Amino acid sequence: MTPQGGEPIPPYPVGTVGLLLAGGLSRRYGSPKAFALYEGRPFHERAHAALSGACDQVIVSASAALAPQFPDACEVCVDLPELAGLGPLAGLASVMRRYPAERYIALPCDMPRVGPREIRRLRSATQNGPSADVKAVRSAEAGDLPLLSVWRGGLADRLEESVRGGQLGVMKLLAGLDTVWLDAALLHPDPAIFHNFNVPQL
């Protein structure tokens, strides 16, 4: 397989890695969102369950400070030392570097309404059509959801280069990659499913 404008993808030991992004500082939320509760379950637990239904392996991307707080059953990847604390692209790059795979399904922990059905539909929707570096979700109501996305293997160098160069914005990176945007309605007709919890629930 050769992505548009890219080099051939070599064989990888793992097909699909679920990449659970749980490393944010959660300043607006006031406490680590990964451990906040939604309908009685921690955000990270709900996201892990959502990814597990469609992925061969699930890796939690978290800061070194938060890593010990996750259950032993979770496989946690902290940022590479030179990328530590530099946002979601650093987390993506660190997981890609340490866990080579054909593709990565990314899900931020602060979208706890996204469940196994939506992730299975995302995987199915991205297995067809033209090849791309990234296939990300957007909603007319919720807007662009760049971290609810599928990334091809072999992008670690590109992401590291971006982070090391001080370009930490996900949208700007996607503008420079071969990115396909998918309608969120393919995953679920209710846009509320894709709500990003930036402040605690009342």
Report on this structure.
The protein has helices spanning about 45-50, 90-100, 115-125, 155-165, 170-175, and strands at about 15-20, 35-40, 40, 55-60, 75, 105-110, 135-140, 145-150, 180-185. The protein has about 200 residues and is an alpha/beta fold. It has one domain: Spore Coat Polysaccharide Biosynthesis Protein SpsA, Chain A, CATH 3.90.550. The strands form two sheets. It has a seven-stranded mixed β-sheet with strand order 5-4-1-6-8-7-9, sandwiched between helices. The chain has a two-stranded antiparallel sheet with strand order 2-3. The longest helix is centred in the middle third of the chain and has 11 residues, at about 90-100. The relative contact order is 0.20.
Q: Which properties best describe this structure?
A:
202 residues; 5 helices; alpha/beta; two-stranded antiparallel ribbon; 22% strand; Spore Coat Polysaccharide Biosynthesis Protein SpsA, Chain A; seven-stranded mixed sheet; disordered N terminus; 24% helix; single chain
Content of β-strand: 15-25%
The domain tally reads 1
End-to-end separation in angstroms reads 48 Å
Highest-level CATH class: Alpha Beta
GO molecular function: GTP binding; metal ion binding; nucleotidyltransferase activity
Pfam families: NTP_transf_3
InterPro entries: MobA-like_NTP_Trfase, Molybde_CF_guanTrfase, Nucleotide-diphossugar_trans
Protein name: Molybdenum cofactor guanylyltransferase
